[in-house]
UniProtKB/TrEMBL annotation:
Keywords: Membrane, Transmembrane, Transmembrane helix. Residues 356-430 form the Alpha-galactosidase NEW3 domain. GO terms for molecular function: carbohydrate binding. The keyword Plastid does not apply. It comes from Methanoculleus marisnigri (strain ATCC 35101 / DSM 1498 / JR1). PANTHER family: ALPHA-GALACTOSIDASE NEW3 DOMAIN-CONTAINING PROTEIN, HYPOTHETICAL MEMBRANE PROTEIN, CONSERVED. It comes from the Archaea. This is Alpha-galactosidase NEW3 domain-containing protein. The chain crosses the membrane at residues 450-470.
Length: 476
């Protein structure tokens, strides 16, 4: 009895389903008797452009819905084809019996498309129609272009903003915004995420940016919002070379690029032992500062003095200037290369000498490295004297002198035999690879005097004569 009742229930359900089937067919079926008309079934474009066909579909049968279909053939890879109605993409349409409705076929071609004709078959209900796209110019091998203008919330251009196109996490192309805040980026065809970043501003991005070959996509105005606290630091010369014995100075600019005023702390990390560092607000100031207040949008110039100990050696030293704000710390790496200070000096006990004509002058010269930290190398002494004079230096050169060391050379000056008595100048030029020093010496040449000899002889003669006269006539 129970089995008989079940059979009856199943039969009734089947009958109900059968009575509802025609209605479902009218709403879902794809066999609607339709006619499709297109006033302009052929369009001429360049590769990468979009062709649009307005289709009028007339229902010759009962009211119902039907699918919107199309079929493409050769060379349409990477094309984007769709049906639209009122700027919405659609794939089904309801057409009352005897009425006509319009739908649009949109075909976005690829920039790689070759020159030629491309047929597309459209099927709506039982009706079909062929439309054609004639490509007259290809853009194969070219790129698409992305354009944008980057500004802040106040409408001021943001130069130096980085605008990039990304395929997931991979950067494909990008550039920095110009002084006018503009970018124009060439990129291969594809769908990307556009990201705009700039230190001091919150990042901006837009997904689903379609780049098409031979076409320009304009993102328009890209507004960036400033961070509440942010600083920009510029060091004029982060790598310096200085001589031992000097106090090098770094000049830097601190700009408050955030939305709020801020006070910044100033310090140095990695300072070598026994070194001293100080921040100042002017290059000649004697007072140091440990923090500085900068209003939003303004900038101040700072000077960092480094004071090495007297015993510092030649070499490269690395340290870090640390500037702390309300939100974070900023670090600027600084490099200082210290070289020795070179000071070549010469010395003699006298710079004026007197000799008789025909004599030879000899004196000692001391060569000293009065610098700090660096050796003097290849020291040579060149002597300049009047024509006919001969000057020699022994030894003629000194290989090297460390800081504080000295060496003595002997200078020999030989005037010509026929020289006229007078005062003459001899110049010594000491040169090395690092420095040079010049000294002048005065040499006074005198005639040999015979007056005294003659006087002695005369006096001796007179004395001898008197003695003779005294011996001969003295007793008378």
């Amino acid at each position: 009895m129970a089995g008989r009742r079940s059979s009856i229930c199943i039969l009734l359900a089947l009958l109900l389903a059968a009575s509802a089937a025609p209605g479902v067919s009218a709403a879902q079926g794809g066999t609607m008797q339709t006619e499709i008309r297109c006033d302009f079934p052929g369009e001429v474009i360049e590769a990468g452009d979009t062709a649009v066909f307005d289709l009028a579909v007339t229902n010759r049968g009962d009211t119902g819905t039907c699918l919107l279909n199309y079929w493409t053939y050769r060379g349409t890879d990477n094309w984007k084809i769709r049906f639209e109605s009122d700027d919405r993409e659609v794939y089904r349409m309801l057409i009352p019996a005897g009425e006509t409705k319009t739908v649009r076929l949109v075909a976005e071609t690829s920039g790689h498309a070759a020159v030629g004709e491309y047929p597309i078959r459209v099927g709506i209900g039982e009706g079909t129609i062929w439309v054609y796209i004639q490509v007259t110019k290809t853009h194969s091998g070219e790129t698409g272009t992305l354009e944008a203008t980057v500004v802040d919330k106040e409408g001021n251009v943001v130069k130096g903003a980085d605008v990039g196109l990304y395929d997931r996490d991979t950067r494909i192309e990008g550039m920095l915004a110009t002084a006018e805040g503009k970018v124009s980026i060439g990129a291969p065809m594809g769908t990307y995420t556009a990201k705009v970043t700039r230190p001091g501003y919150r990042p901006w991005e837009k997904k689903g940016v379609d780049i098409r070959i031979g076409q320009t996509v304009d993102l328009g105005i890209v507004p960036l919002e400033k961070e509440n606290f942010f600083a920009e630091i510029r060091v004029k010369s982060p790598s310096r070379i200085a001589a031992i014995g000097t106090n090098p100075q770094y000049e830097m600019t601190l700009k408050n690029a955030g939305r709020n005023d801020d006070t910044y702390s100033l310090s140095v990390q990695g300072l070598p032992e026994q070194w001293y560092a100080r921040f100042k607000e002017s290059s000649t100031a004697t007072e140091e500062v440990s923090e500085i207040y900068v209003p939003s949008g303004e900038e101040k110039t700072l000077y960092l003095d480094l004071i090495p100990p007297y015993s510092v050696g030649v070499g490269e030293y690395n340290l870090t200037a640390v500037i702390g704000s309300s939100a974070r710390e900023y670090e600027e790496n600084l490099t200082l290369r210290l070289r020795g200070s070179y000071d070549l000096r010469t010395y003699t006990k006298s710079y004026r000498h007197e000799i008789n004509r025909g004599d030879t002058l000899t004196f000692d010269m001391t060569v000293t490295n009065a610098g700090v930290g660096g050796a003097l190398t290849n020291i040579g002494i060149n002597m300049s004297a009047p024509e006919g004079w001969r000057v020699t230096v022994d030894p003629a050169s000194v290989a090297s002198l460390e800081a504080g060391e000295r060496a003595t050379v002997q200078v020999t000056v030989i005037p010509p035999a026929d020289i006229v008595a007078g005062e003459y100048k001899v110049v010594a030029l000491a040169k090395c690879d690092q420095d040079e020093e010049e000294d002048e010496y005065r040499v006074v040449v005198k005639e040999q005097s015979y007056v005294a000899v003659l006087g002695i002889l005369v006096m001796a003669g007179i004395g001898a004569g008197l003695w003779y006269m005294f011996r001969k006539y003295g007793r008378r």
